[in-house]
Design brief:
globular, 337 residues, T-fold, three-stranded antiparallel β-sheet, alpha+beta, 2 domains
């Protein structure tokens, strides 16, 4: 009887140890790092032990990206290019330029960072808006197009002095990719990186489950953050573009911050927001912008022909009701609200 009691206690202790191990496995320590960059904020979460110096490394990286591609810094590489005929560029600038060229070709020109002259004239870079009509837009379109720029051996030249670049629709996504690469160099395999709404995740969260990412309902300024969808992500990047936040109003007319390269005018489409999920946040950023330009049907066609692109398009139907198109591969990753 005594031996049986000892055995029972031993089995109970073993069971408790196994339960403790399982609980420990399901709940890992989550480290949070956050800061300000590129006129917005960033958030990094990673699972594991604290990595001293990581925040300083991320801040230095983001400062270097600003010095290369921020149009709000007069001393940045892109600002110097926009005010001159040519400039020597760093490797980050060269990478983003080449990625922009590929995204421009992939989207049939819908993604086009060479619309700098139009961005400025419309007042989308916080300049004073210029009174715009068809003649003014046509005259500025002559200075747009990726063929205005030639990049050879680290030197970028402009065909026309009035041409200018604006990487705002890809640079944040690229920054997220580089931030994620920093975490990987630190040996981290489970993390969440977000900058200005663009994000990348790897592995699992602190509950040993896929990361749960909310997608906003595109209504008004959405300051109260109402969610339309929640998607479960692993080892993917995600970016969202929407006109419900980025617009300005003149005499009762709302102008989207997304310009159609074909017309030079702000887009007026029934897509309210485009969320793209791919492996690269830079490309997710670029494609989300392109889909706002392309419209619902053309975007759906591109998504369905390319099995590397997942997307959620929220749009207004003919009756003005909000609807969602969800690419087929995401059906089992969307949580019902």
């Amino acid at each position: 009887m005594h031996k049986i009691s000892v055995l029972a206690i031993a089995l109970l202790l073993l069971a408790c140890q196994e339960e403790a191990k399982q609980t420990q496995k399901e709940h890992y320590a989550e480290i949070l790092v956050s800061g300000e960059a590129q006129g917005t904020t960033y958030t990094v979460k990673y699972i594991g032990e604290e990595h001293i110096g990581l925040e300083d490394e991320l801040d230095s990286l983001l400062e270097a990206i600003d010095n290369s591609m921020s149009t709000y810094l007069a001393t940045s590489t892109i600002s110097k290019l926009n005010q001159s005929d040519s400039v020597s560029v760093d490797s980050m600038f060269e990478n983003v330029f080449n990625m922009s060229m590929r995204a421009n070709l992939l989207t049939g020109g819908a993604f086009d960072p060479s619309l700098g002259p139009l961005f400025k004239a419309w007042g989308f870079d916080y300049s004073v808006p210029t009174p715009m009509d068809s003649a003014m837009v046509d005259s500025l379109l002559e200075f747009c197009g990726m063929n205005q720029f030639i990049l050879v051996d680290g030197l970028i030249k402009k065909r026309n002095q009035s041409a200018s670049l604006n990487f705002n629709a890809i640079a944040q996504g690229y920054a997220v990719d580089l931030m994620a690469a920093v975490l990987r160099r630190h040996g981290l395999e489970n993390f969440y990186v977000e900058l200005g709404g663009e994000l990348k995740v790897r592995g699992h969260n602190s509950k040993n489950a896929p990361w749960r990412i909310g997608i906003d309902k595109p209504q008004g300024k959405n300051l109260e953050r109402v969610l339309q969808h929640i998607v479960k992500l692993q080892n993917k990047a995600m970016a969202t573009s929407g006109n419900y936040r980025n617009y300005y109003e003149v005499e009762g007319e709302k102008y989207s911050h997304t310009i159609d390269p074909a017309t030079g005018f702000p887009v007026k489409r029934n897509i309210l927001s485009a969320t793209v999920i791919v492996s690269s946040c830079a490309y997710a950023d670029a494609l989300a912008t392109a889909f706002m330009v392309m419209g619902l049907d053309a975007s759906k066609e591109m998504i369905e022909k390319n099995n590397t692109i997942s997307a959620i398009l929220i749009y207004s139907d003919e009756e003005g009701n909000m609807q969602s198109y969800i690419s087929e591969d995401l059906n089992d990753q969307i949580e019902a609200l």
